């Protein structure tokens, strides 16, 4: 039987894999609900859970939600991994084509991006 800290790690891992599975199915809203239920139940998400959700936003080209999720992981004291930054670049590369052809402005992205260096790199990248 599992106890203490190990039990929490198992729960966190199950939630994270659940989020990843939902993202792979394209059920981003359900993945968001799972992340929120983790927080509500005080099973604090790890970087894997946040990266999985950001991956979902890459697949849907939703830069605004990707930036908000990225900012939330930093607010919770987690350090973004290489995968986090790669996913942010991926969502921005997908969004750049949207920005060029639609009325999405860089200023709207700047409002949700607390990491100014990342935002400047994205502007140069696009």
TrEMBL record:
The organism is Amphimedon queenslandica
Key words of the record: Repeat
- Which residue intervals correspond to the PPR repeats? 46-80
Q: Which PROSITE patterns match?
A: PPR
- Protein name as catalogued: Pentacotripeptide-repeat region of PRORP domain-containing protein
One Pfam family in the UniProt entry:
PPR_2
